[in-house]
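User: Hey, quick favor. My workstation is busy. Could you predict this chain's structure for me?
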Amino acid sequence: MSQAYPIIDHEYDVVVVGAGGAGLRATVGLAEAGLKTACVTKVFPTRSHTVAAQGGISAALGNMGPDDWRWHMYDTVKGADWLGDQDAIEYMCREAIPSIIELEHYGLPFSRTEDGKIYQRPFGGMTTNYGEGTAQRTCAAADRTGHAMLHTLYQQSVKHQVEFFIEYFALDLIMNDEGDVCGIMAWNLDDGAIHRFRAKMVILATGGYGRTYFSCTSAHTCTGDGGGMVLRAGLPLQDMEFVQFHPTGIYGAGCLITEGVRGEGGYVTNSEGERFMERYAPSAKDLASRDVVSRSMTIEIREGRGVGPKKDHIHLHLEHLDPDVIEERLPGISETARIFAGVDVTKEPIPVLPTCHYNMGGVPANFHGEVVTRKNGGMSVVPGLMSIGEAACVSVHGANRLGSNSLLDLVVFGRAAALHCAEAVDPNGSHKPFPKNAGEASLDRLDRIRHAKGGTPTAELRLEMQRIMQNNCAVFRTGEVLREGVGLLQQTVQRRQDLHVSDRSMIWNSDLVETLELDNLLSQAVVTMTSAANREESRGAHAREDFPNRDDVTWMKHTLAWCDGESNVRIDYRPVVMQTLTNEVQSFPPKARVY
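Assistant: No problem, here it is.
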């Protein structure tokens, strides 16, 4: 096969796959450390999905009132419904403060208070004094924080003369006979060439797999390519049943309306004009955590109090806010609402609906970013492989992520991965031995998909998968519906044999790209649905109507799931880390999660 596809070889100390917030922060740190680094990305770095993050990045700076990183840690543990690993959560919340100062020094244009400090807004689930008050903890650059972050980090990458391989599609990991990762295969979309990257360390920063769902806030590029590569390499994914639905996606379009709207004083109402969150979360109200608000909205719609002709959505109000505040702090939101909902936010409410937004699950990793797997009855590090950002499951988000902890996750663990590589990767050391047929299996798969001559277009099969996920694995779930979903997805996976790729070229073949992406999505959809059917409790974003309570006795554990390339899923578990990293904070024992 390598004769049909000539291979261009490269050697680097570290190869980073993905150029979003996590990938770029790691890349900058690696370049600063003097390691020979390549960043391989399927889109131009500033087109990565981090650019769409709106509301802000959390850190207990205390610029807008008293705050403490321990309070932030408590909120994150509670938000995670006690499925988060407390050593990793402590690391993230403690390192948040220097990470934000570092971003400021890099040049990120944060919004400012009158005395020149970084502006911070309230966000859902963020409290003071272990749940007693409301914290203003989310550092913001108006409502385009991700945009500002991505451009800042890309500018730093350019400053350090980082080597980018832009618009290269990562195909597969290369593993040797000892199970060490020693590189990746990639396809250059611009000229059709195949590239083989040899590396002492591969860092997957490929983002989430939101496009498994029909209605989602993710870009069309969010196809979980790293997760697909990991499953094909025979490694597991963790906690894939936990998928966050953002309460406020624009009805019909799915475009995100940031939680920052509610942080600035926006609120949701039903068809009776009632501010119903006061019934579901008497204390936090509209600033309860995302899973709570999403379920509350869904209940209102189910019980006939939805708005619109079909009574199938909810209203989000900003019109009571000062237009100058909207213009200064939420300019992108008013523009988005005007374009996608035809609404003037200063005069009328925005129609919204819970929409798939974030994947808590992903590639299992420790707080250094090292990927781990089940081996000899325990968890072992996979030599040569790291994962960070939404692609990874560290697990700082557990069963439900708090808003503005995702951008923090990117920079803290991007930075941690670079620091770890600076210690662990010897720039003068030799590379691991390459297997004899390195990349051959990857090229066989590429060739098979490229020449697929069936009767089913990729878009048709993708839509079938997305509708099954939307109908069978959404905000509320039951065992019967989930098991039906597993069966339906197995049929969809079988139909993959009948795919038709109409374009056979290797240059800018978007038909082939989307088919390879669908391959990645399908395996993760199967793992998500199977893991959800297996977990017989309700915890965080995973709400089972047939098992409405959290069950800490049976289910206080992470799900590990392997998929064999068809639709056969094997499930195992690993314990949740309840111990903290240092003695600076005590472990937070489980208790009822109310807002």
